[in-house]
Each structure stands twice: as structure tokens, then as C-alpha cells.
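task queued by scheduler; priority normal; single chain, no ligands, no partner chains; default sampling; output format set to C-alpha cells
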Amino acid sequence: MEITKETIISDILDINGDAAEVFMEYGMHCLGCACARGETIEEACAVHDINPDELVEALKKKLA
């Protein structure tokens, strides 16, 4: 799976639960909320004031 800013958060978590560690490090502690089931990385980053490109790179590094 290629991870991009348009990737749905729950899709990443369904494929590899280790991604949760990265989201938590970036302050995204609400991974179980209903919004996370349908939000893209970019949408969630906008809410949490996080650079989506940095998060995508961190996820790719963790899951490589």
C-alpha cells in the first residue's frame, strides 16, 4: 500500500497496527473515534495543525 496525504487513516491502521505509534507521536490520540474511520491523513493533519508531508514520511519510514 502506498501511503499518501489522501490515504484514509483507518486503511493504514487496518493493514499495519504499528502505524498507531506514529500517529500517537504526532499527537493524534483519537484513532478510535468515528472521524478517524473516514478521514484522510491530510484532513486529520489540518485539524491537529500537523504538517501532512512530515507525517506521511514518518509513516513510510516506520512501515518500511
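post-processing summary
- The radius of gyration is 10 Å.
- Residues 9-63 form one domain.
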